């Protein structure tokens, strides 16, 4: 059976077009997979299980149904949904993955990551990443009143949009040296990640070995794709 990978859906609630596409995928093609990996930013923002679970209940239930049917479902935190907690995992049936995670993918040592740890030229984002990776920082944030977290999340999204408009494009992409260093450290021949919203396959040669980096498609109207990997290789399943 195949293994499926997806990332960067940025769902805002259960009512949107992208959420409906995801629900149809989870009820259909995902059942043909042995495992489904969600590599971060499934949600556009997650202010805590208490505030975000209700508006994504149908999505959570769809993942839970897939897991109950026997498909292994994994979730890696992204920079938008780093605050998912125990209630999320208990309700969805998903299993938390560290970032990065190495696995044997049909005989190929493959490293999985959300991808933002590779954007090392973006110093401001790396500083934020160090915060959201800290469980103590997350706990302090989640103790704030729900109304305040909603306001803070809306402000953060606006600020992120302004910052992206001002940053040079290359800063928000991965750093090539960081990619090769991380793959070498983990003994990986293949890397699968999201975050950059630049779906493409990149081939490298380093230390006498051929390496491959696969960037998952971000989801948007007219572009909803899942990477399907099996013993025959990789392909993108387009859901439109």
Describe, in plain words, how this protein is organized in 3D:
The chain is an alpha/beta fold. It has a single domain, classed as Purple Acid Phosphatase, chain A, domain 2 (4-Layer Sandwich). Helix content is about 35%, strand content about 25%. The chain has eight helices and eleven strands. The strands form two sheets. Strands 4-3-2-1-10-11 form a six-stranded mixed β-sheet, covered by helices on one side. A five-stranded mixed β-sheet has the order 5-6-7-9-8, covered by helices on one side. Helix 1 (about 15-25) runs parallel beside helix 3 (about 55-70). The longest helix has 21 residues, at about 145-165. The protein is globular and about 55 Å long. The model has no long low-confidence stretch (mean pLDDT about 95).
Provide key terms for this protein.
8 helices, Purple Acid Phosphatase, chain A, domain 2, about 240 residues, six-stranded mixed β-sheet, 11 strands
Give a brief description.
The protein is of the alpha/beta class and 240 residues long.
State the share of residues found in helices, binned by percent.
25-40%
CATH topology: Purple Acid Phosphatase, chain A, domain 2
Number of E-state strands: 11
Structural class of the helices, strands and pairings? alpha/beta
The largest β sheet comes out as:
6 strands, mixed
What is the count of helical runs?
8
The averaged pLDDT comes out at 94
Distance between the termini: 23 Å
Oligomer: single chain
Under CATH at level 1, the class stands as Alpha Beta
The ordered H/E elements are EHEHHEHEEEHHHHEEEEE
Quick one: overall form? globular
Number of domains: 1
Rg (C-alpha, Å):
17 Å
Stretches where pLDDT is under 50 for at least 5 consecutive residues are none
Beta percentage is 25-35%
Q: Order of strands side by side in the largest beta sheet?
A: 4-3-2-1-10-11
Give the second-level CATH assignment, the architecture.
4-Layer Sandwich
